[in-house]
Here is the input.
Amino acid sequence: MSLRNTHEERESTAREADGPRRDTPADTPADTPAGSSPARPLNRAERAAWLGLLSTHLQLLRTLDRELMTAERLPMSSFEVLLTLAEAPGRHLRMKELAASLLISRSGLTRIVDDLERQGFVERRKCSTDARGFDAVLTEAGTRAYRRARKVHLSSLRAEFLDKLTPEDLTALGGIWRTVGFDDSATAC
Here is the structure.
């Protein structure tokens, strides 16, 4: 059996295990664009970049959530609310602005804020400029909880992601995110 046949058998076995490949048309080389159509299938490099981003993001969120729950009994979603309020002017935001900044529904935010309110970390107050609206306000206890959780978050983030990359990798990633539209002037973490 030749090396070519062995390689083809491995590829065939991998395709059978993964199901049919939809990332490149049969007549398109795996690492070249498949034409100019925006709806063209992903080539191998595009697929690896996209799935790598999704997989890394999911793995990091799961790890950060687990570490925050273990250390502070605070899920990642609650930490994100505390983080956003800690960085907001006056440590408060309208509920609708908070929901928009976290990319969650208002009802989802309501459940998180209800829990944070029960713990004494957040208060809801009538908005001073609109009697129909409410502000979420970070309390002193919430500030302390945020500071403790932030240490856990940063430690896990460094161990699971940042410390695995070289300074050049980090610079390259920052450039990539700016290219696709990320505003690195925003404060976070």
Q: What stands out?
A: The beta strands are 92-94, 122-126, 134-138. Residues 24 and 43 are 5 Å apart (CA to CA).
